[in-house]
Structure formats: C-alpha cells, structure tokens
Amino acid sequence: MFPRTIHPKNIDKGCSKPVTLAAPHSEEQLNKIFDRFDSNGDGHLSWEELRSAYNILGMSFPGLRALKALRVADENRDGYISQKEFIKLTRKNPRK
Q1: What is the C-alpha separation between 23 and 30, in angstroms, rounded?
Q2: Which of 32, 64, 33, 35 has the alpha carbon at shortest distance from 51?
Q3: Where are the alpha helices (DSSP H) in 1-96?
Q4: Each residue of 47-68: pLDDT tens digit?
Q5: CB 13 within 8 A of CB 7
Q6: How far is it, in rounded angstroms, from Cα 21 to Cα 63?
C-alpha cells in the first residue's frame, strides 16, 4: 500500500513548510489551559469535559480521544484527570 499522508485540521494542505512543534508551555500557561476546559471548576477533567475540549479543538472522534486520555493520564483511576495529572501528562515526552 502507498504511504499515507495525514493532514491535520486547520492546516493548509498545500503548505510546503514542515509543521514544527511549539515551545513547551509554562506551568502557568498549562494551568490556564486546564481551567479553560474545567467547565464546572472542580479541579478535575471528566470524560464529558475532555470530550468537549477535543470537540472545541476540532479533533475527530472526541469521545474516543477522551477515553484514551483518561486511560493514559488518570494515574489514581478515579475517572478524572486532576490538574497535577494534567501537568504531568503534558511534561511527558511523546516519543518515549
């Protein structure tokens, strides 16, 4: 089969420039991002809040992405991602 090219949403498919990763966010920036999606202000991201966040960001399959995020980041298995778990997740190297 031919190699498959993935074109992320919101990026011009005709763009010849390579996509570069943004610089790491500061903890303050990450806290603001977390607070933006913590719609009920309880200090945790539920499946519903994660699904909504992925939907707002224009991601495909937001419900499935939310389930995967919980599986990866919810270290204490309480069904929510705490702010501490969120910060820790964003600090992980995705290539490891």
Answers
A1: 12
A2: 64
A3: 27-37, 47-56, 62-73, 83-91
A4: 999 999 999 999 999 999 999 9
A5: yes
A6: 25
Across 62-82, average pLDDT: 95
Helix (H) or strand (E) holding 44: strand 44-45
Q: Is 89 exposed, middle or buried (0-12, 13-18, 19+ CB in 10 A)?
A: middle
Q: Are 44 and 82 in contact (CB under 8 A)?
A: yes
The residue written with tokens 């977390």 in the block is: 34
Q: What is the pTM of this model?
A: 0.69
CA angle 28, 11, 52 (to 5 degrees): 50
Question: Distance between alpha carbon 57 and the CA centroid of its chain, in Å?
Answer: 9
Please classify residue 33 by burial: count the beta carbons closer than 10 Å to its beta carbon, then call 0-12 exposed, 13-18 middle and 19+ buried: middle
Higher pLDDT, 41 or 93: 41
C-alpha distances in angstroms, 81 versus 4, 9, 88? 33, 26, 10
